[in-house]
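note to self — DONT lose this again. spent like an hour looking for the file last time. sequence + predicted structure for the chain T wanted, 363 res
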Amino acid sequence: MQAGGAGQINKGVIISLRKAVILKFTPKELMQFLVNLGEPGYRAKQILEWVYQKGATSFKEMTNLPISLRERLEQTTEIGFLEKITEQVSADGTAKILFNLSDGQGVETVVLPYDIGYSACISTQVGCKMGCIFCASGLPGYIRNLTAAEMMAQVLQAGGSARNRDQELKSLVLMGSGEPLDNWDATIKFLEAVKDPGRLGMSLRHVTLSTSGLVPKIKELAALEFPLTLAVSLHAPNDDLRSKIMPINTKYPLTPLLTACDEYTKATGRRVTYEYILIAGLNDSVDLALELSARLRGRNCHVNLITLNAVPELDLRPSPEVAVRTFRDTLRQKKINVTVRRELGADIAAACGQLRNNYMREC
C-alpha cells in the first residue's frame, strides 16, 4: 500500500481519510451531511452562521452546538481555511496575505482599506494563462484553477484580517492572480455562495469581477444577469497595441469585446469599468487618450486609470505623474467618465503574484 494517499486500501474497500469541508457545502448539502451523521438538520444553519457571519475559525468556538457534535466535527470535518504563510501590512494599511494550498502551491489575497469599508481582492487561479506583459502573476505560467471553497476561504480569512483592525469587509474584487472567467464553473459557484443569504449573504452589487476579455464568457455572464461590476482590462485603444500588451486580443479583439460589454450593460443595467494600466512610453500618449475616448464615446462606462506596479522581472516602468494627469484630463475633456485609482500597498510588492513568486523562489 502506498503511504500518503487520499485513502487506504483494505480488502478491496477504499476508506477515505479526507475530511469533509464545510466551505464546499451548500446549506442543503450540509444539512444532508449532518442528517447522515445522525444529527438534526437545523444544525447546518448554526454552523454556517458561525463560519460565514461570526468569523469562527474552529468548531470549538461554536458554543451553541453540543460538545459531542463539536468533537465529532473535529474528527470528521474541517472548515476549509487555508494555511497562512505570511501577512505583510503596508504603511497605508493594505495587507497582503500569502496562503499555502493543500498541494503546496501559494496564492495571494489583498485586504484594501477604504473609507467606505475594507475590500478583499482575491485570486481565482494559481498562475495565469493570459500572458499580459505587465503581470507578475503570469510569470510562472498557469498552474491550476482554485476551487470555489478556496476562493471563499480567502474572503473569510481576509475578513478576519479586517476584524483584527476593527473593520468589516464591505466589498470583494476578483482581481488577484488568474482570469476568473477562465475558471468559469468555480467562479460561478463562488458567486452563488457570496449572494446566498444562508452563507456570505453579500449583494453582488458589492462585487467586481475583472477579466482580460473572454468574449463568450462575458456573454454567458450577461445571461445570468448578476448585478456585479464587470471590469475589463483594456490597456490600449486599438488592436495592434492591445495585442502586444495582451495576447488574448488576437483571439478576442476590441470590436467584439466592446460589443459583448455593451450587451452586458443592457442585460444587467450595470455600467462596465474599463481598466487602463499606464505604462511609460507605451500606451500613455495624448493621441492614445484621444483614440480611447473615440472608442468609448456614447457607451455607459467608466475608465479606471491605473499606474503600473513595476515588477523587477519585467522591463516596464510606470507612467510619470504628469503623463497620468494629462491622460486623465484628455479623457475628461472628451466627456469620458474617468478616475485614477488610488495606489495602495506600493511598499509591500503590491503587484499580483510578486509575493508568491518571491516565496516560491526561496522555497
